[in-house]
Amino acid sequence: MNRGTSRRRGVGSSLLVVAVAIVAGLCGVGVRSLLDSSQSTTFGGTPAPPELEAALAAAFPEDSCVAATDGELAVSEILDRQEHADWRIALGTGATDEACVGALVDAGSRRVTLIMALSPALRERLEILAADLRSECHPRDEAARLVTTILDEMSPPGWELRIGGRINAPSERMEEVLRHIDAGCWIYSGTGWSADGTRLFWIGGK
Amino acid sequence: MRKLISKLMLAAIVSGLLGALVIPAAAGWAGNNTCNTTSGICVSLDDNNGVPRAVTCCSDNTYVGDKYFNTTTNIDNTVSSVRNAFAGNDVTFHVNTNGGGDSFCQDSGTQDNDLGWFGSDFDDKLSSHNKSAGDGVC
To answer: Could you give the number of structural domains in chain B?
Structure first.
């Protein structure tokens, strides 16, 4: 009789230990989840469907100038063909028929945005100049003159050259470029646009 | 009774630790911290593309709510250096959400080590970015 009671008490206490262990374990997971949710969120959106990205890249090749109207038509046909009925096309900054456009893909918003792009000829000239300015040493005014000469000749009007502000270079050459700049040389640092649609170009140095 | 209480305490401590440390959390980090790959868009809180850092595969129309990897630091309006590690895609960075405001184009395979270099318009101001289809924007 006493042994039976004792055994039942033993089983009961074992069950209690297991129950406490499960509850405590769940509490631990909860604490971990709370910590994680306070420290991290997803950065970036949803990857675009690869076949969509590939078709868009083919429609806006690096060596061709696609105007906005043609670009819009091409994107529309791709979206129809691939049955992305819930995607839309947006005209972004500088997307006109007077300029070349490229396509930005945002799968999170299900949107393809056409945006101003450099013409293939201007991009090629600037890439050559950028390489020259990384290998030869030109002071600020000389670098500005070299960029301005190309833009006067090849860029649509209304551009603006900004002195300083960005040091942009191929990743594998950045250390070398920083030493170049320390020596007083200036580089071509890329392009962009202001909120009002003005095409911007940068040179960097110090 | 004392033995039972000790067992309960031990079970609670061990299980709590196991739950917190060993069992994977249900909601975890979806990005990573690696910026030396051949594909990815990296943003860093400080100059020179160091850590704290966040890396993604694709466009992000708002940085609001985003944090650097394993930190509680907001990405929105705090980025000081960026890298586009894609070999065949340009990336545009924007001062406003949804691709608006002043913007710059990061050519494939390039980086900006210091957006605050001599009074940039972009240091601690970025709020979104977009990945291009192909390499023909910058």
So the answer is: 1
